[in-house]
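User: Could you check the structure of this?
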Amino acid sequence: MKTIRFGIIGGGLMGREFASVTARWCNVLDMPVRPELVAVCSATNRLFPWYKESFPSIRQATTDYRELLANPAVEAVYCAVPHHLHQQIYCDTIAAGKHLMGEKPFGIDLAANTAIVECGQQHPEVFVRCVSEFPFYPGVQRIGQMIEAGAFGQLLEVSAGFLHSSDLDTAKPINWKRMSQFNGEYGCMGDLGMHICHVPFRAGWRPMNVRAILSNVVPQRPDGKGQMVACDTWDNATLLCEATDGAGTFPMTLKTQRISPGEKNTWYIEIKGTKACARFSTKNPKRLEILEYRGGEQIWQQIDTGYETAFKTITGGLFEFGFADTMLQMVASFLHELAGEKMPRKFAGCATPEETAMSHRLFTAALRSQRECSTVKID
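Assistant: Sure, the predicted structure tokens are below.
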């Protein structure tokens, strides 16, 4: 089995989630390649003891990402840094010849994303993908198989969203995701939007125009030092798009919300067609609901999915699937495709740079739609 030696740039929440995947790689079966964590970079050294104690394979811990990129032992990088750093670090990573698994939105704005995508095109020997965990849930993988089989018939409507309540507490101190200089003008769209775009874009459903309603619900937050400061990012976004699948047009509604009462961290998708409908939500992660219409009664059936994954693991099929499992599947997808292996399913792949570019065109048009109170064509 070939080993791909990874470095992490951005050692916080998601960096540690990625690291834990490398420690659980024995769960994955029939994989021609394995990850090994050999280096970590973080803005501060606060988490270095955890990394070094948990991963004896780490030989480098630095606060300078350039030192990590100069390390010949590092072959691939998982990068999870604030959005304003994406263009510089992603492009430097690609130019250094390191395969890149980068966090969304792949650039703070359209210009930054364009620079990253073009850099990847200039280095075709480097494998570049964007993370998006939620399509790896078994229920969504089944929906993907339905899409591939043409089971829905003529599409009538598609809805997808990512809802959570992390900002419902107005006394919560501000962080970088609530400041446009770090998070970008997209606000919640940049933070959450690639997750909800991944499946529709992979299906070939293209938004042609958008009417956006964006809300800055909490314009000020405490800075943790006794003062109130501007919270200038969009908290909630609802995008109504006219989309096409190449055969016809249909409405597609996309929602990203940081202030959604009653939601912890809910991702959902619902597809309605003339022959079948399907809906899935991580609020009930085992439940897949399907309606198949062949004439007569229209009956929604509820299916409890088991541990049904795109990439085989040791876990029994009756066990439950959760977020840590999506991370394992996502990294397996990245390495499987990096190794040049045939992908088991169309919807088993990580988001491509081209798919991130489409999301940026959508979000940029949404900003204009909000400013002009109009429907805006997507270039």
